[in-house]
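Researcher: Structure prediction, please.
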Amino acid sequence: MLFGCSTPTSDKKIAPPAAPTEQIEVIAPTQLSGDRLVAKAKNEENQQAIVFLLQAATQYIKEQQLAKALHISAQLRKLPLTLGQNNYNQLNIVQVLFESGEVELAAKQLLAIETSTPSKRHLFLLANIKVQQGLLVKGIISYLNYYQQFPFTDTEQVYYLNSLFAQLTPWQFKALEKSTATHLSGWLAFAKIVATYGHEPKDLTSNLSRWQRSFPAHPATVLVSGLNSKGIEFNDSRAIENISVLLPLSGREEPLGKAIQAGILAAYQLQNANTGKSRNIRFYDTNAKPMADIVAQLHLQQPDFVIGPLLKQHVDDYLLADGSALTVATAPAENNKVALMPKEHNWTTLLLNLPEHGNLTEQQFALSMLPEDEAKQAAFSLSQKGFNSAIILSQNTAIGKRMATSFAEQWQLQTEIKPSIIYYPSGKQMQTVVKKGLDVHLSDERIYLMRNRIKENLKAEARNRRDIDMIYMFATPDQARLLKPYIDVNISPFANAIPMYASSRSHNIDSNSNTRRDLNGLTFTEIPWLLNAQQVNQNLAVEAKQLWPGRSSQLERIYAMGIDSMQLVDKVDDMQLIPMLRHKGETGTLQMNANRIISRSFSWGKYRSSRVQSVNLD
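Model: Predicted structure follows.
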């Protein structure tokens, strides 16, 4: 329910620096406006007129008169241009399309340029187009190749490249480690240091000093002093003493709220034991009072930090109540007093769900549990394994379709191959639909026809389609237990086994040995908390099993979310200040984007010999 009500959000894009200008043949830089250059072109012979028109299109781009630039470039295509002029004109078109947001069209037009030695602007646009397409790893490599041929000293470009490294997920980072490019090793080492030690200013400073000695001429050295000064800001940040938590602690969602509450308290007690300090923590039941009343109480209490709400409708109510005057009932006539009208609050909030509409303020953060993030990670990681033809088996439900679509889009982005999606229903029709998707039914029909035509007894094995090299499932544990063995027995004995992968929805910690045997060989994504070897705090895990031995996988995931939310209290401001920072949590490796949304990266597990083992798939 919690996953299903999450709303997908799009990351706010960080604008790249302006594209570099360049000079070809007799086209020299000019201070004239685009309109002035067009006027000059009207009075010149063909070749000089072409030069002025090329200059005019470039100038119009600088002036952000993109429609005029595109019109001139389209007219120039009709004229007899030299190869250099044609490529220059084509780059103008690419830049106009890119700056207009037509990224895919810009990418196609860039491919039309005929050259063995790409120009400076060509390489710059290539890198930024890949980034905007969502090909972050390839975009960074292209950007470093651009730097190799045209080293830049502009700090704006260094900061932009730093922002690209800050966006890398752990699985993208590992893919980038396998690549080679100028200064890549220095950037990777720099990013690791900031991600690992960024929360501790002293450790950050000492490790950055060592990094500078190892990479003295690296362009990222200009970032070091700024990071050290931000470390000082960490030390000067205000102490968080009073924490308020908004959860559904009664009603239908009580089990969810109580599980998160238990995780928050476990992390709270651990922090108190480690620091020797005790904070004040207060819980509010969002199912017991209207959100406006709870916000009014918060204004009276003035907490330093708020965790929650959890449910989407409560998140939206909270944000609507945020900063607005709340009408509170007049007190009894005998004391003739009126309750206070709360003003816009000044505390930090970590929402446990994403809002339906609107952006977050600088003091608001949101912990994302979007299932699409898991699907995208799986598609990216599996595409790096050399698979080409994937088939997706998904529940025919709203959330199943969301996950399947996200997986398919990411797969096609990375491989340029569109995967097949088979939506199966629940119940008896599930296996029939899957069998049809594997084309086994066609082989069965051919065998049936042959047996009818040949009177003698005919022994035959059905053949499955041979163009699949990987299957990915979005299925519940019960569905996965039916599908995995069914697919195994319907693969031809003379065909190679098809590797099967699944989302965390297929993993149930309560499964018995028979169930795990049925799922033998299935690899799946999962949060570290549910993979013993990946747990960040195993003492908490042991304690939780003793207190709640029969708790479901769903509630265990919610419990882990509670642990992480409490641990983020001291880190969200730092993560906003330094986007490269990472928190290794129980729900995954957490990172913050430019919209102050905190997303997670999963670990991988595999069923082996009737038990689950952690595996390193990335």
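Model: Confidence is low (pLDDT under 50) at residues 323-343, 440-451, 458-465.
Researcher: Thanks, that helps.
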